[in-house]
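Changelog-linked ticket: fe (ii) ion example.
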Amino acid sequence: MTLDLIVRGATLTDGRTGMDIAVRDGKIVEVAPSIDGAATREIDAAGCLVSPPFVESHFHLDSTLSLGQPRMNRSGTLLEGIQLWSELKPHLTVDSVKERARRLCTWAIARGTLAIRSHVDVCDQRLIAVEALLELREEMAPWIDVQLVAFPQDGYFRFAGAPDLVARALDKGVDVVGGIPHFERTMEEGARSVRALCALAAERGLRVDMHCDETDDPLSRHVETLAFETVRLGMEGRVAGSHLTSMHSMDNYYVSKLVPLMAEAELSAVPNPLINIVLQGRHDTYPKRRGLTRVPELLAAGVNVSFGHDCVMDPWYSLGTHDMLEVAAMALHVAQMTGQDEMPRMFDAVTVNGARTLGLDGYGLEPGCNADLVILQAANKIEALRLRPARLFVIRRGEVIAETAASRSRVQLGDRELTVDFKL
Ligand code: FE2
């Protein structure tokens, strides 16, 4: 039987080279050197790295690309960003949110990201963003998986009516239960919100992903409650703690107890390196804390760590093009994970680990997996992190849905013309 697609001469993410990948009916059917047979389409990877797609573990599609509306964040701080978002919220329409989110999805696809977990702010009686993103999730489903988290941005107990709004959002079909315990009025209320939201998720059979301890306060320890509730409710492997920046500042002895609890609960940790490095440590003079959670220590303890971009051109972050390799490269630098064995793990944090956080089915390069692939203009994971190269082909269910020309510079030195591709 004719194949739909063969990618030839691929270098795989496990290091194997000269591999062919055969695709039929949207699935990978064989991965082997020199596969015989004809296909409707053949792509010569020419030794380039072929990866399963990038996974965005933490994003905000409702606020993205709203930069400057209704004004710029002059200070660049988290608190001014929250104030700005509350000014924009009453003016949101379903069409405006969808239009911006759809545009961001096209940027993500062009960069090889084919799954996005997006928090959606439910602290709005109209639930405009929820409605918009539910429609967008269906509209974009052929090309990109959008998973939505019911996020009570202004606090589950702090914002009047939030419990009802979270429940309504979940009733409408939002996938995951969110929260923001460090933003509640007191530590006790924060812990109570974690307990209530985990119970809600357990009752409905849903996953949990909370903005958790996004602060420099070393005593913000809601992740401890999150781990405890996860085990108590038998939700191991289905709960994520996003940001976890307070862990950067925690006492080392306390962390030596906390990390095993997180591992026991099979929590996923979701740092957002670009945002953490610009928003944390703002009250410090010098030394100024980095605010990224303890990535190497979590990985060493067997905790699943995946990264989020969090924001692109919105009230909190005015930069970005939605490139998960930029996120991974930032993490690599800030966490000082420059060892030869450490760098590839930063690539994994925006691919396989993200798939685990989201609970994606059919993700990977093995036969039987969805034929979702990215061909990068790089030879291996470390080179991909260094170059953040062109995503030559982005393939969804065996169809090419995005292409980018290979990047090469021509340098003229007198009579000599040189081609520069930044490779040794
Ligand atoms: Fe976030």
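Closing comment: Example verified and attached. The domain at 54-358 is CATH 3.20.20.140 (TIM Barrel). DSSP finds 14 helices and 18 strands in the chain.
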